[in-house]
Amino acid sequence: MMTCEDVNECAISPLLCAFRCINTFGGYECMCPGGYTLRENQRMCQDLDECSEGLHDCESRGMTCKNLIGTFMCVCPSGMVRHLDNEVCEGKERVYSTLIGLFNGDVLPIHCVYRCSLSVLPLSLDYREGFCFTEVLMTMCQMSSSSRTPTTKSQCCCDGGRGWGNQCELCPLAGTAGYRKLCPHGPGYATDGMDIDECKVIPDTCKNGRCINTMGSYRCHCKLGYTSTITGMACVDLDECVMSPKPCNFICKNTEGSYTCSCPRGYVLQEDGRTCKGTGKLQFP
After folding, report:
1. At the topology level of CATH, where does 129-199 sit?
2. φ, ψ for residue 9 (rounded to 5)?
3. Which GO molecular function annotation, any one, does this entry have (predicted)?
């Protein structure tokens, strides 16, 4: 009596899905990480636009939704700024009025707080420059983890940095009050709301590829022999040996960024580096 067994497509073909393959009885399903959704082919993943799908709570806080790669952020409408201590928007005049007394105890004239706010605001921001470090061991910044490009503290800490400056000032942890104060616009943006160029701040941002800066983030254009991760923020080795059609006519061995072909005993590798030819009259196709 013949019986049928389920075939685990995920185990047979690891590249069926871009992110995660789940075997089902008689088939399989592909899943994407949070912030992404399946494409029409039900195999590849694409960014989920939480703003257009209504998967956000920005409007309840008087903000508008801005879609980012793999996530979203709430931004204040024109003429308003986010309060540094909470998640609400306030008029610029009210925020700027709090600047009185912040400059070494000096009290600014009321008319300047309101009418000269654009010239007053930069004084409240930290524009000092120093190196950014992505590794800190025992409160010591590791020079090997720095791109050695001078940046401000917010450009460093709001972009994945762990320490900043000559004194190795530790960056506040994401989600803490200190982080929200330093990075009021969320990751990828400095305190003043300007986009951070991750390609310059973070060392080896796209190893084995080229870094392309985007608003609030970045993406990698990978070299031949490498492919981007699901987030598009790193390049990993591409296993050519599991691709279809296979690059070798017989034995394929994957290497970092490439592959090599070899032949069984009695055959020699041809000049094309892919096909094998028998040493006698037989020729391997």
Report:
1. Extracellular Matrix Fibrillin (3.90.290)
2. -60, -30
3. calcium ion binding
Task: With cut-offs at 50, 70 and 90, classify the pLDDT of residue 86.
Answer: low
Rounded Cα distance, 285 and 173, in Å: 59
**Residues 262, 265, 267, 271: is their CA dihedral positive or negative?**
positive
Neighbours of 90 (CB within 10 A): 17
Phi, psi of 87 (to 5 degrees): -105, 45
Give Dmax over CA atoms of the chain in angstroms: 97
Q: Is the peptide bond before 245 cis (omega within 30 degrees of 0)?
A: yes
Of 235, 258, 234, 237, whose CA–CA distance to 248 is shortest? 258
The rounded distance, in Å, linking the Cα atoms of 75 and 70 is: 17
The answer to whether residues 117 and 92 touch, using CB atoms and an 8 Å cutoff, is yes
Q: CA 274, CA 272: separation in Å to the nearest integer?
A: 5
Architecture of domain 9-47: Ribbon (2.10)
Task: Give the confidence band of 280 by pLDDT, cuts at 50, 70, 90.
Answer: low
Taking the domains of the chain in order of start, what are their residue ranges? Answer: 9-47, 129-199, 240-278
- pLDDT-wise least confident of 36-50, 69-83, 89-103: 89-103
